TrEMBL record:
UniProtKB keywords: Pyridoxal phosphate
Cross-referenced PANTHER family: PROLINE SYNTHETASE CO-TRANSCRIBED BACTERIAL HOMOLOG PROTEIN (PTHR10146), PYRIDOXAL PHOSPHATE HOMEOSTASIS PROTEIN (PTHR10146:SF14)
Origin: domain of life: Bacteria
Pfam families linked: Ala_racemase_N (PF01168)
Domain Alanine racemase N-terminal, residue spans: 15-229
Function description: Pyridoxal 5'-phosphate (PLP)-binding protein, which is involved in PLP homeostasis.
UniProt family annotation: Belongs to the pyridoxal phosphate-binding protein YggS/PROSC family.
N6-(pyridoxal phosphate)lysine carried by residues: 38
InterPro entries in UniProt: Ala_racemase_N (IPR001608), PLP-binding_barrel (IPR029066), PyrdxlP_homeostasis (IPR011078)
Originating organism: Allochromatium vinosum (strain ATCC 17899 / DSM 180 / NBRC 103801 / NCIMB 10441 / D) (Chromatium vinosum)
A GO molecular-function descriptor: pyridoxal phosphate binding
Name under which the protein is recorded: Pyridoxal phosphate homeostasis protein
């Protein structure tokens, strides 16, 4: 895909986001686009950056580190780690990312906090919630989120920003909205004045409108921005 194609596709995604915001009666600018660039070359990220994109999501650590090295001149990129966390990779995640979207383990949380460089601000994290109970999906059960949230809030190297989910796909908007509504309602029950959990990371290329209608503040979009990713 050419740089102009990527810019055009990004603009189309932004238009979809804006239309959904207006449909939901929400304020302009209330939903951020995270361009999921896993399995995309560094040149595609550079093209999206040139078009105005700043937040990028990666799931494979070594691939992400390689691309970060190639894009070191783009100092204003905001890197989001959205893959499964492994204990032996927390040090590099803590050092090289601004956000983590799939935190679901207190041991990982403690490692990320301890290994966050003192020169950097606390690592922004979203706790991943498994609303469907699918064993293939990461995340903690809804009734276990509170028990994970409380100790995570006390870790100095982390800043718990909100909740994230990756629901089972559906083509029906009513069914798409159900898990997103459940995540928002869970957030509303757990939020406190000193930990408002203002971020709801939910919605992808095929269901972003449903997610925005239910309160998403960050949508993670890959295919609609970059096209179908490589399977190599």
């Amino acid at each position: 895909m050419t740089p102009s194609d990527i810019a055009q596709h990004r603009n189309q995604v932004l238009a979809r986001i804006q239309a959904a915001i207006e449909h939901a009666g929400r304020p302009a600018g209330s939903v951020a686009l995270i361009a999921v660039s896993k399995k995309q070359p560094a040149e595609a990220i550079r093209a999206a950056h040139a078009a105005g994109q700043r937040a990028f999501g990666e799931s494979y650590l070594q691939e992400a580190l390689d691309k970060q090295a190639l894009l070191v001149d783009l100092s204003d990129i905001e890197w989001h780690f959205i893959g499964r966390i492994q204990s032996n990779k927390t040090r590099q995640i803590a050092a090289h990312f601004d956000w983590v979207h799939g935190l679901a383990d207190l041991g990982h949380a403690r490692r990320l906090s301890e290994q966050r460089p003192a020169s950097r601000p606390p690592l922004n994290v979203c706790l991943q919630v498994n609303l469907s109970g699918e064993t293939s999906k990461g995340g903690v059960a809804p009734d276990a989120v509170g028990a994970l949230l409380e100790p995570c809030r006390e870790l100095p190297g982390l800043r718990v920003r909100g909740l994230m989910t990756l629901p089972a796909p559906s083509e029906d908007e009513t069914e798409q909205r159900r898990p997103f509504r459940a995540l928002r309602e869970l957030r509303d029950r757990l939020a406190t004045p000193d930990c408002p959990l203002e971020v709801l990371s939910m919605g992808m290329s095929d269901d972003m409108e449903a997610a925005i209608l239910e309160g998403a503040t960050q949508v993670r979009i890959g295919t609609a921005v970059f096209g179908v990713r490589s399977t190599d």
